[in-house]
Amino acid sequence: MEPTHNVTEFILLGLAVSPELEHMCFLLFLCFYISIILGNLLITVTVKGSQSLNSPMYFFLSYLSLVDICYSSVTAPKLISDFLVEKKTISFNSCMGQLFWFHFFGCTEIFLLTVMAYDRYVAICKPLHYMTIMTRSVCSFLVAVSWVGGFVHSIIQTLLTTHLPFCGPNEIDHYFCDVHPLLKLACTDTYIVGIIVVANTGMISLTCFVVLVISYIVILVSLRRRTSEGRLKALSTCASHITVVVIFFGPCIFIYLRPSAIFTEDKMIAVFYTIITPMLNPLIYTLRNEDVKNAMRKMWIRKVDLDNK
Which residues are in the G-protein coupled receptors family 1 profile domain (predicted)? Predict the structure, then answer.
């Protein structure tokens, strides 16, 4: 039986800032979004255009930057444009589309971060076999698995939500369409669906985070046998990834590994993992990485030389 959808559009309550602050927020979040696009695009172009950044670590990093661009683009443009209008509406189909793409890119990023931790584990714990284990075909396969895993996760979330009846009210207490706020609006008992959502999203986040923690514990234990110089070099390559993992997984686990209750803090926490983290990733990976900075300098010098000819 087809679900009943008396609701043709939803009203987003947004970040609920005062009217005086909305224009300031518009400029602030527009700057954030431009930074996300330019920063991640710069990393992608640098990795693809530099022969020195041809290791698996940078192969994964280029895809992480691509996913960050797509991930933030699902929610940020709508949030930014809504600061300029009084009534923030989104059609039913657009809402479900936003839900799908948000979880697709978000889950793909989770899997990519986990794959990157595996790459660091092999590089540090099995350095002699690194290039034979992490071949280009294996790396491509792991990236493909991340995309497929994100799709499977997202299609489950979307199908569960679209098959719920929505007959009013239609106000979403959020700035984008996510599962928990939508479950609150469904005019049916959503307990079972809520459990599935927690099992799907929450457990993926928690399981991947546990795998990441275990991999880094193994890495740290293995480093005890290294010289202090080798230990520092290995830790420096992991530090950026650990930072990204902590600031991305922490909010995700808090939001999704619990029943579909809505807290007032949820929207600000969501800003952190939908906008702030994708904006910080390029800075984290470039400021702490001499190889990336050197590759960017070479590309800039090459561009200047071409322009002067």
Answer: 39-285
